[in-house]
Automatic annotation (TrEMBL):
Keywords: Transferase. Gene3D superfamilies: Aldolase class I (3.20.20.70), Chorismate mutase (1.20.59.10). This is chorismate mutase. It comes from the Bacteria. Residues 267-358 form the Chorismate mutase domain. PANTHER family: PHOSPHO-2-DEHYDRO-3-DEOXYHEPTONATE ALDOLASE, PROTEIN AROA(G). Pfam families: CM_2 (PF01817), DAHP_synth_1 (PF00793). It is an enzyme of class 5 (isomerase). The keyword Transport does not apply. One of its GO terms (biological process) is chorismate metabolic process. The keyword Transferase applies.
C-alpha cells in the first residue's frame, strides 16, 4: 500500500481544533441508556457517538450485545442530538445492516483483524463506500497483520481509512488490560504518517483511573484522536464496567489533556523532539519492567542454589554471557565498553538478589 494522503482527508475535513474524540458506552443496553449518554455528550468535544451492538466475548454466556435493534437506537441518537454514530462490525451481515441504518463510522475489532478471511469479507461488503472505516490492531502484536487489514480495505476502493491502537494481549499480567506496545504503533506511524491513528485508552487500561495517563501518552506521540468508553453509570454497565468513565469525567479529561499545537517557528522542532522523547520514556519504562522480570528469575535461581548449596558466582556462565552480549551489542551499534558496564551492573544486582535469598 502506498502512502496516500487522501486517507487523511476525512479527518482534515472535520477542521477540528482538538483531537478527534469517539465516545459512548461499551455496549448499547437499552434505548433509554443510549439516548441518556448521547444527550450528555452532545455539547462536548465528542465527534462520534460509539456503541457496541454486537459484542464478541472471549467466552460464551456473557452479554453479547442487543444486535440489530441497537442500530435503531443509534439512528435516534443522530436524529435527537445531531451527533454522528459509530459501531463495530464483524461480518457481511453487520456491514449491510449498519449501512442500511446510515452508521457514519465503522470499525473492525481486534478479534476480527486477526483473520484475513473476516477482513476480506468486510472489505467486499464495503466495496467503494464513503463511510469511515477504522481497523483495530489485532490482539497479537503483528504489524504485518494490522497493515494487511488496511491494504485489503484500500484495495476495495475504501479511501476513508484509519487505525485504532487498543493494545495487545499478553500472557503475563501487567498493570494494563492490554499491553500498549507503543513501539509497534510508532513503527506504523513512521511507515504511514498520513494514516490517521486513534488511541483506545479504555481497552489498554482496563481500569478507568489509567485512561487519562494513557490518553496523554498517545497525544504526546502525535496520535490523531481518542476512543473512550463512556457510561452514565459505569459501575453497573453490562460489559467492561471497570474501564468506562462518566460523561463528566470525559469532559474533565479533555480539559486536562495537554495538546501540542504549532504556534511558533520552533513548533515543528519541539513537536518532533517531544515525540522522540516520549518514545524514549516508553522504552525506558519497558527496560525497567524487563529488568524487574529478570531479577525475579534470578530469585528463582537463588532458591535452587540454596537448596543444592551451590555458590552464587558461576564464573564460566558469567564469561559466556558477557561474550555473547558483547557480540549482540555490536550488532545493535553498542560499544563493548557500554555493554560491559551495563551487564556488570545487572550481574551485580542479580548476585545481590541471590545472596539475599541464600543468606535467608
Amino acid at each position: 500500500m502506498e502512502n496516500k494522503k487522501e486517507m487523511r482527508k476525512w479527518l482534515d475535513d472535520l477542521g477540528l481544533d482538538h483531537p478527534l474524540v469517539i465516545a459512548g458506552p461499551c455496549s448499547a443496553e437499552t434505548e433509554e441508556q443510549v439516548l441518556k449518554i448521547a444527550h450528555s455528550l452532545k455539547d462536548t468535544d465528542v465527534n462520534y457517538f460509539r456503541s457496541g451492538i454486537w459484542k464478541p466475548r472471549t467466552r460464551p454466556g456473557n452479554f453479547e450485545g442487543v444486535g440489530a435493534l441497537g442500530l435503531k437506537w443509534l439512528q435516534k441518537v443522530k436524529e435527537e442530538t445531531g451527533m454522528k454514530t459509530a459501531t463495530e462490525v464483524a461480518n457481511r451481515n453487520h456491514v449491510e445492516l449498519a449501512l442500511e441504518h446510515d452508521i457514519d463510522l465503522l470499525w473492525i475489532g481486534a478479534r476480527s483483524t486477526v483473520s484475513p478471511f473476516i477482513v476480506q469479507e468486510i472489505a467486499d461488503a464495503l466495496q467503494g463506500t464513503d463511510k469511515i472505516v477504522l481497523v483495530k490492531n489485532p490482539v497479537n502484536p503483528d504489524l504485518s497483520l494490522w497493515l494487511g487489514g488496511i491494504e485489503r480495505l484500500y484495495t476495495a476502493d475504501i479511501k476513508n481509512l484509519g487505525v485504532i491502537h487498543r493494545g495487545f494481549s499478553t500472557y503475563e499480567k501487567t498493570k494494563y488490560r492490554n499491553n500498549p506496545n507503543w513501539q509497534l504503533a510508532i513503527e506504523l506511524q513512521s511507515k504511514f504518517p498520513d494514516l490517521p491513528i486513534i488511541n483506545d485508552p479504555s481497552h489498554i487500561a482496563g481500569k478507568r483511573d489509567l485512561v487519562f495517563d494513557i490518553s496523554q501518552e498517545a497525544l504526546d506521540l502525535n496520535f490523531d484522536g481518542l476512543m473512550i468508553e463512556t457510561h452514565h453509570d459505569p459501575d453497573n454497565a453490562w460489559s467492561d464496567a471497570a474501564q468506562q468513565v462518566t460523561p463528566e469525567r470525559l469532559v474533565q479529561i479533555m480539559k486536562d489533556l495537554t495538546i501540542r499545537k504549532e504556534t511558533d517557528p520552533e513548533a515543528e522542532y519541539n513537536k518532533k523532539l517531544g515525540n522522540l522523547r516520549a518514545q524514549i520514556d516508553m522504552i525506558d519504562n519497558d527496560l525497567i519492567e524487563m529488568l524487574g522480570k529478570r531479577m525475579k528469575v534470578s530469585d528463582g535461581i537463588g532458591e535452587l542454589k540454596k537448596q543444592k548449596n551451590v555458590a552464587v558466582l558461576q564464573t564460566n556462565r558469567w564469561n559466556a554471557i558477557l561474550g555473547k552480549m558483547i557480540l549482540e551489542g555490536e550488532g545493535h551499534g553498542l560499544s563493548e565498553e557500554f555493554v560491559l558496564k551495563m551487564f556488570k551492573a545487572i550481574h551485580q544486582e542479580s548476585i545481590n538478589h541471590q545472596e539475599k535469598i541464600i543468606n535467608g
